[in-house]
Write a structure and sequence with these properties.
The chain is α/β, with parallel strands linked by helices and about 375 residues long. The chain folds into 2 domains: about 50 residues; about 325 residues, Purple Acid Phosphatase, chain A, domain 2. It is built from 10 helices and 19 strands. Strands 3, 4, 5, 6, 15, 16, 17, 18 and 19 form a 9-stranded mixed β-sheet that branches. A hairpin with a 2-residue loop joins strand 16 and strand 17. Helix 1 packs antiparallel against helix 2. The N and C termini lie far apart (about 50 Å).
Length: about 375
């Protein structure tokens, strides 16, 4: 534990009592004895009030080591960031355990739901964000959310240009239809994985066209042909979908229908992103649907906007994939893995577990969750 030198509550109270004793030397004996007793009590328990910054939870390193077998391939995937942080703020806490998760992954994915502008007031924030993402090795960014249009098509074009200039890969939007629907591929130990992104409920004016800048959207014919081609080529398919904002952990019927249709087409995993809260997980046929991972934008209102989820996928050449989920909490220094040291963080992790559909899809390992094996359903 690294001690924070800023005064804690105990030190402040002790200083107050000492000042009181100094200024009241002629007070009654009982009064002096009372305050002396209070001072002794505070000193005895003062060690409990030392402000500390928790080290990386040991279970993160241990579990990553257990799942990272020889020749395995791992992917870390998070929710959406819908507001640029100020230049002096970080999205992720330096001591929150996320660095270890990112460093051990072959690929890290984040949903970016805000445009990056280089000639506006948020240019410094855009630059600072890209620097932090590069430092954390988060190189694949889903940009199919509606928030990317906050500055119109100009903002989308600027975002695509900035990402390309700084060696990031954009997923779910492009200068034309082909670019917008273009998957991202990775391969290791004879295991192929393909990622594609789209917007589940995109306004018609934002759809990519043959020669038109825009976003990938739900097109039955295009997606069916694309996903079936990838599966025939031996790829395991991820479909990352921008859903609508919501404060319910249960997805809307239209979202459930769309996600299930993607599984019917051949997608193994469907991951919902957007500015909503953490939502339930559903095992549907041979696939798994994660309806929402939470919004990574700092908010000061309800507690469920300060909770999110990070998924870590492990793929093996000769075994079924495994998935673990880390509950995230928003702290002063940024997002961090819930370490279970405080009642508040334990409660946050438990609430996230319940929203994920709890025991139906996940095994609660305490500090993290393990996805139950998918049962083949006809």
């Amino acid at each position: 534990m690294q001690e924070d030198k800023s005064p804690g509550l105990t030190i402040l109270l002790k200083n107050k009592l000492k000042k009181y004793a100094k200024n009241n030397k002629h007070g009654g004996r009982r009064q002096h004895l009372f305050f002396l007793g209070v001072l002794i009590f505070i000193t005895a328990v003062g060690r409990l009030d030392i402000r500390t910054e928790a080290k990386v939870p040991a279970f993160i390193t241990a579990e990553i080591g257990e799942f990272n077998r020889e020749n395995s391939m791992s992917v870390a995937l998070m929710g959406s960031l819908s507001l640029l942080p100020s230049p002096d703020k970080s999205v992720f806490s330096d001591n929150g355990g996320l660095g270890e998760i990112f460093n051990s992954a072959d690929l890290n994915i984040l949903s970016l739901d805000v445009p990056l502008l280089t000639a506006e007031a948020n240019a410094d924030s855009s630059k600072r964000l890209l620097e932090e993402l590069a430092q954390k090795d988060i190189r694949l960014l889903q940009i199919s959310g509606n928030g990317i249009y906050q500055q119109g098509l100009t903002g989308v074009a600027s975002t695509l240009s900035s990402l390309q200039e700084h060696n990031f890969h954009a997923l779910g939007a492009g200068l034309n239809l082909e670019e917008a629907f273009s998957p991202y591929h990775m391969e290791k130990s004879a295991r192929k994985i393909s990622f594609l992104a789209l917007n589940g409920f995109l306004p018609s004016g934002c759809k990519a066209g043959k020669n038109r800048l825009g976003t990938a959207y739900f097109d039955e014919e295009v997606l069916s042909r694309l996903i079936s081609g990838l599966t025939r080529d031996g790829s395991l398919v991820f479909a990352v979908v921008s859903f609508q904002e919501g404060t319910s952990f249960v997805p809307a019927p239209s979202e459930r229908e769309l996600a299930r249709r993607l599984v019917d087409m051949g997608a193994k995993y469907v991951v919902g992103t957007g500015t909503g809260i953490v939502r339930e997980t559903e095992q549907y046929k041979d696939g798994v649907i994660f309806y929402g991972l939470g919004d990574l934008t700092p908010r000061k209102c309800y507690s469920f906007f300060k909770e999110a989820l990070l998924l870590k996928f492990f793929f093996y050449a000769d075994a079924d994939p495994e998935v673990i989920a880390f509950p995230l909490v928003l702290k002063k220094g940024g997002w961090a893995v819930s370490n279970g040291y405080s009642r508040t963080e334990k409660l946050a992790a438990y609430k996230i577990f319940l929203r994920l559909n709890g025991d139906k899809a996940w095994e609660n390992a305490g500090d993290y969750f393990i996805l139950k094996p998918v049962e083949t359903k006809l």
